[in-house]
Specification:
Blueprint lengths: L15 E3 L16 E3 L20 E3 L1 H8 L4 H8 L14 E2 L2 E2 L5 E2 L4 E2 L1 E3 L6 E4 L5 E8 L7 E7 L2 E5 L7 H8 L30 E4 L13 H12 L7 E4 L7 H11 L3 E3 L1 H7 L6 H5 L1 E2 L7 E3 L28 H13 L7 H8 L4 E7 L4 H16 L6 E5 L6 H11 L4 E3 L9 H9 L23 H17 L9 H4 L9 H10 L16 H14 L27 H4 L25 H12 L5 H7 L30 E4 L19 E2 L39
Parallel strand pairs: 1-2, 2-3, 3-8, 12-13, 13-20, 14-17, 14-18, 15-16, 15-17, 18-19
Antiparallel strand pairs: 4-7, 5-6, 9-10, 9-21, 10-11, 11-12, 21-22
Helix pairs in contact: 4-5, 4-10, 12-16, 13-16
Length: 719
């Protein structure tokens, strides 16, 4: 699950868990997921699937299933290539176990299972949950990476749209407008909203959009993928035909760069064996399927393994080949000996020496994707680089601003397209203690619509933030900033992955060059005295919530006021103590909760703890305290493989699935008497535990029946 996912990744009010497969805290609710959905295969979205004890069915796209079953960490790939492993070590191969031929020659299904259930895109599919309850699930492409999808969930509790990770470019929004299954949920033009009849059943409203907020604090526009790749190709064509290029596609999602180059130059792209075998099996993208080759001599465009580059791009700044193999192969005398032995025994001649001579003075240009560049910066960068190349200068590192997540302007356009009742962020920063949730709710208020009639709240309310908590965060940020180097805290994950040639400090020089063209969080926001990443985030929240700038003259004991226009007032002391609750963390790395605590901060901690955990008489507290927040957090999608999570055996829900065509979809007005036989997913592993009685999830449980839990000590909180 992404960092800070609310409600333990449950798509409330339904007992459906999306991109969350790890153990659920014992004191949280609900305890069991009736259904699991997977949006895509980036590492922070598949936590828990590597556990051999995981035994529930998971709905995903066909390409996501292919990528997941062939997933292999780089270390294991290197061991196999070096013949230290006899076979591939697939991380998730236990999710699909094929039948085998027994000693008697008969096919045996003992232990066979397939937990990954492929749903086709744009095909409403009915799924039975519990107690005869059903939902209809429809998948849509998410424009994020191969296999990534969004989910439309429709049921008696209303309709939800879960975006997963996505990029809502203008063309993407246009395609949604013409999608038959999303058209009922499109908002009317502003001038028609007064005449909306919400009870006729023609125009519907989404109860909530679970929104990708990974880049919500990027308030600036970013170039479209087409603009980025078109500009890159124009620069590539300015280089001499003898130039080699290394495309640093370090994670899934940069395939548009490869496709644009393959089309523009009508050539293959050299891929490592791992990428080649995955791309060649993706059925939804024929161009991506066909563009790869494993022959490094076939092309001058390379997207092979960056930690083990082929000889054509494995060079230093002077263009000299850098050999990664045994030192004896670097010795020319040894090479001559090998050549002599080959001639003596009539063996094929080694081309090692020829490759070395051919690589002398070779120019290799490194293409690095970034995401935090404005269209204006991109235009200026293209003009500057073009002038350098026309003057004969050697530019060895190129940037391409291809973002895989939408910034705030694109997100607001996407939400305005539907105008749901509310927004649930998929990604929150745990260190901000839910202030980002309150800020996101505020910034999207103009894009949402309120319910026409009062209704029972099936999804817990937005956390109530307080000015005192905001000031406390600012003080903590100020303290941390004095102990760290703010510039070392990168905002653009892609910048951390920028590479150059194999010369000393080449990567660092390339990153320093990139920073000249990028903008950070809070671009366009009047900065305060706060520094670093945390300071910029707090400045953005300050601008969203209408607060004054932080300065050094802030009092040590701020007045008890709440955020402007939001939350309780000083005249309501009971509600004034409503605070943001965060549950204890499920650690995946060994760490000490007290590691960064100081006795000098005890007073500050006590003040914050009072605002965070003081008991409340308000109804919102009971509702909010009932739902846990996810604490699985990762620095980036290219992090090392997730450690095995400790999960208990899961109960397999009974699901009945029936596929529907656009004509037979219930949202197209199918008569009630028409039914389609259900075909249960009977793929439970042998010996899986049976479902217990009385453990069913009830989606209509009133929020006021939920009781609070005991407060947690402050040192269990993350900052």
């Amino acid at each position: 699950m992404p960092p800070g996912t609310p409600f333990n990744s449950f798509a409330l009010p339904y007992p459906i868990r999306i991109d969350g497969f790890s153990a659920i805290p014992s004191d949280s609710y609900p305890q069991n997921a009736a259904l699991h959905l997977l949006t895509h295969t980036h590492s922070d979205h598949i936590v828990g699937l590597q556990a051999k004890s995981f035994s529930q069915s998971v709905i995903c796209s066909a390409d996501a299933k292919t990528m997941l079953l062939r997933h292999e960490v780089y270390k294991e790939r290197a061991f196999f290539e070096g013949e230290y492993r006899a076979e591939h070590q697939r991380t998730y191969k236990h999710l699909k176990v094929d039948p085998f031929v027994g000693p008697d020659g008969e096919l045996s299904h003992v232990g066979a299972r397939d937990l990954l259930k492929v749903f086709p895109l744009h095909t409403p599919t009915s799924v039975e949950l519990e107690d005869g309850k059903e939902v209809i699930i429809t998948l849509f492409d998410a424009n994020h990476c191969p296999g990534s999808v969004m989910y439309l969930i429709e049921g008696k509790e209303g309709a939800l749209l879960h975006t997963g990770d996505f990029r809502a470019e203008p063309w993407f929004l246009e395609s949604l407008k013409h999608n038959l299954f999303l058209q009922p949920y499109l908002s009317l033009p502003d001038y028609d909203t007064s005449s909306t009849n919400t009870h006729c059943g023609v125009i519907k409203t989404l109860e909530a959009i679970y929104l990708d907020t990974a880049c919500v604090m990027q308030s600036h526009q970013v170039p479209t993928k087409e603009d980025a790749t078109t500009g890159l190709v124009a620069l590539l064509k300015l280089y001499p035909p003898s130039t080699y290029f290394f495309i640093n596609s370090w994670t899934w999602g940069y395939e548009d760069i490869l496709k644009a180059i393959a089309r523009a130059f009508n050539c293959k792209i050299h891929l490592d064996d791992y990428k080649y075998k995955i791309y060649s099996r993706l059925t939804s993208d024929p161009l991506l399927q066909a563009l790869g080759t494993t022959d490094p001599d076939e092309t001058r465009f390379h997207a092979c393994e960056r930690f083990s580059r082929c000889s054509h791009v494995n060079v230093d700044r002077d263009g000299n080949f850098v050999e990664d193999n045994d030192e004896s192969l670097n010795d020319e005398a040894s090479e001559d000996t090998v050549e002599a032995m080959n001639r003596m025994f009539n063996l094929p001649m080694s081309n090692q020496k020829a490759k070395r001579e051919k690589s002398q003075e070779k120019v290799v240009v490194y293409v690095n994707p970034v995401s935090s560049m404005t269209p204006e910066s991109w235009a200026k960068y293209k003009a500057t680089t073009k002038n350098q190349l026309l003057k004969g200068e050697v530019v060895r590192s190129l940037l391409v601003p291809l973002s895989r997540h939408s910034p705030l302007p694109e997100l607001q356009s996407f939400v305005s397209l539907f105008r749901p009742k509310r927004i649930i962020p998929n990604t929150l920063d745990p260190s901000l203690l839910d202030l980002d949730w309150a800020g996101i709710d505020r910034i999207f208020q103009s894009c949402c619509r309120k319910p026409d009639i009062p209704a029972r709240q099936l999804i817990p309310p937005v956390p109530v933030a307080q000015h005192t908590l905001f000031l406390e965060l600012a003080r903590l940020c100020r303290t941390v900033s004095k102990q760290t180097i703010p510039d070392d805290d990168e905002q653009d994950v892609a910048v951390k992955n920028i590479i150059g040639d194999l010369s000393e400090n080449a990567d660092m020089k390339s990153r320093a060059m990139a920073k000249q063209w990028l903008v950070g969080l809070g671009y366009g926001v009047d900065p305060s005295a706060l520094k670093g990443s945390a300071g910029r985030r707090i400045d953005v929240l300050r601008s969203w919530l209408g607060l004054s700038k932080w300065d050094e003259s802030q009092p040590d004991h701020p007045p008890e006021t709440t955020l402007k226009g939001k939350g309780p007032t000083a005249d309501t002391p009971a509600k004034k103590r409503i605070a943001i609750r965060r549950e204890s963390t499920i650690r995946i790395r060994n760490s000490s909760d007290n590691e960064h605590d100081s006795s000098d901060d005890e007073d500050a901690h006590a003040r914050t703890a009072h605002h965070l955990f003081a008991p409340s008489d308000g109804g919102e507290y009971d509702a909010q305290a009932r739902w846990d927040r996810s604490s699985m957090s990762f620095e980036d999608e290219d992090a090392a493989e997730i450690e095995a999570s400790l999960t208990g055996a899961s109960r397999e829900p009974r699901m009945g699935i029936r596929r529907m065509t656009p004509e037979s979809s219930p949202i197209r007005g199918v008569p009630k008497h028409r039914s389609v036989p259900k075909s249960p997913l009977n793929n439970k592993p042998s010996g899986s535990p049976a479902r217990g009685n009385g453990q069913h999830f009830t989606t209509s449980t009133p929020i006021d029946k939920v009781g609070p839990r005991s407060p947690l000590p402050y040192h269990n909180r993350l900052f």
